[in-house]
Amino acid sequence: MTDLEEIYNVQKTADRIYSNADIEAAIENMAVNINHFYQGLNPIVLCIMNGGVVFCGKLLPLLRFPLQFDYAHATRYNNTTDGKTLEWRVVPTLDLRGRDVLIVDDIYDVGETLAGVIEACEKQKALSVKSAVLVNKVHDRKYDPSFSVDFVALEAGDRYLFGYGMDYKSYLRNAPGIYAVGNSLGCEA
Predict the structure, then answer these.
(1) Strands 68-75 and 151-156, sheet pairing
(2) Measured distance CA(72)–CA(162) in Å, rounded
(3) What is the CB neighbour count within 10 angstroms for residue 36?
(4) What's the Rg (C-alpha) of the chain?
(5) Is there a domain that residue 166 lies in?
(6) Which domain holds residue 126?
């Protein structure tokens, strides 16, 4: 179990990278592009839990086309700061066959989780699979350097991020903005 004192220390020493206003403006800009792309289509918006919940909740009301909503829960972190093997906790309930799917997730870090979710959608015979992320973490450790996310709201450096749905050891998803863990804590990205 995580020591609550550690959580308070992380919160107190973190650097704010983006304010709520910055994030909401970026999501609004992203929504314009998504609306243009999906106009006239019949997509399923697939939120990746738990990290994507805040971002998806802000994005959905800005989408101006008919859609169906579903979610999946795939993780590699299991309440730690170090990703391991992909674990599926919940799979989508809607039939993805022949449908356009927009995956909404919190962060494109290494990309192994997102690649696994996309592959699972493709195996279900989705017509197309696109991805939208709140944050693209810029570094050279991507799982597949040839892969890129279709819609990105914000970019950040290679630090451990939390807030706006992203967590630190399953805490701080509710932080009002996006924060980077202070370097003094020795946390790797």
Answers:
(1) unpaired
(2) 20
(3) 10
(4) 16
(5) no
(6) 19-161
Token pair of 30 as six digits = 């992203």
Hey, is 5 helix, strand or coil? helix
pLDDT tens-digit profile of 154-188? 999 999 999 999 999 999 999 999 999 986 444 44
Neighbouring C-beta atoms of residue 53, cutoff 10 Å: 17
HEC sequence for 57-110: HHHHHHCCCCCEEEEEEEECCCCCCCCCCCEEEECCCCCCCCCEEEEEEEEECC
Q: What is the CATH number for 122? A: 3.40.50.2020
Structure-block tokens of residue 144 = 């597949």
Tens-place pLDDT, residues 91-129: 888 999 999 999 999 999 989 889 889 998 999 999 999
Structure tokens at 47: 């939120």
Instruction: Please indicate, yes or no, if residue 137 is contained in any of the structural domains.
Output: yes
Q: Write the single-letter amino acid at 109.
A: D
25 three-class SS: helix
Closest CA to 88 of 72, 102, 104: 72
pLDDT confidence of 87, banded at 50, 70, 90? confident
Query: Is 33's pLDDT higher than 50?
Result: yes
- The domain tally of the chain equals 1
